[in-house]
Amino acid sequence: QVQLQQSGPGLVKPSQTLSLTCAISGDSVSSNSAAWNWIRQSPSRGLEWLGRTYYRSKWYNDFAVSVKSRITISPDTSKSQFSLQLNSVTPEDTAVYFCAGADSESLLRYWGQGTLVTVSS
Amino acid sequence: EIVMTQSPATLSVSPGERATLSCRASQSVSSNLAWYQQKPGQAPRLLIYGASTRATGIPARFSGSGSGTEFTLTISSLQSEDFAVYYCQQYNNWPSHTFGQGTKLEIK
Questions:
Q1: Is the CB of A108 less than 8 angstroms away from the CB of B97?
Q2: A66 to chain B, closest Cα gap in Å
Q3: Out of A46, A52, A109, closest to residue B46 by CB
Q4: What phi and psi values does residue B79 have, to the nearest 5 degrees?
């Protein structure tokens, strides 16, 4: 049974960097069949996929066009977790952020509990 | 980018009755369409994938149909725990997962 546990601050100041971590149990961040995603949800934007990292003999990343210039998703193999960094945040980045694991069929089967991140001074 | 449009935005149905939710894609997604259920304060939960295959542990009262651009989620006899928000999501156009805006299923 795969479980994802998110951690990170709930308040970030404008222009600073949003940082969240997602710890994986029951699978490995280095799995050759899974992909590890970040998704956010806000009233104005709905559910928005942000990006993913995955391992297929080497590491790959894909990002949404809307955040491509500001986002980093990094695996940590020593702890079997992955992280999200979103730079230069504005109040429009205020949302509930979810990490999610996709299986070999690209289905988002496993979700973290969600973290409300508010961007405010 | 593929746009997913759900209708109606809100659906009021009595317990025990049938609910039918619709999802339309702006271009064909073949059968690469999933449905999720989300309750307040929780993450979305995968219900249906491949347009019509129930995920593990999902009751048989949930069924999905459609292909291409038109999809339907049917809940045959609504239980109290089914009142939630439902999202469709396409996973045909990689790497982006695109979600619909959701249908809120409320008690009539």
A1: yes
A2: 11
A3: A109
A4: -100, 160
Residue that has been written with the tokens 């690209």 in this structure: A106
Quick one: which of B63, B76, B59, B60 has its CA closest to B19? B76
Integer-rounded Cα Rg, in Å, for chain A is 14
* Tens of pLDDT, residues B47-65: 999 999 999 999 999 999 9
Least CB–CB distance from A106: residue in B1, B44, B91: B91
Residues 6+ apart with CB under 8 A from B67: B30, B31, B51
Candidates A67, A73, A91, A84; CA nearest to A13 is A91
Interface test with A, best of B6, B96, B104 (most A CBs within 10 A): B96
Give the Cα separation of A47 and A95 in Å (integer). Answer: 10
Residues pairing with B46 in the sheet: B36
Q: What tens digit of pLDDT does each residue of B69-102 get? A: 999 999 999 999 999 999 999 999 877 789 999 9
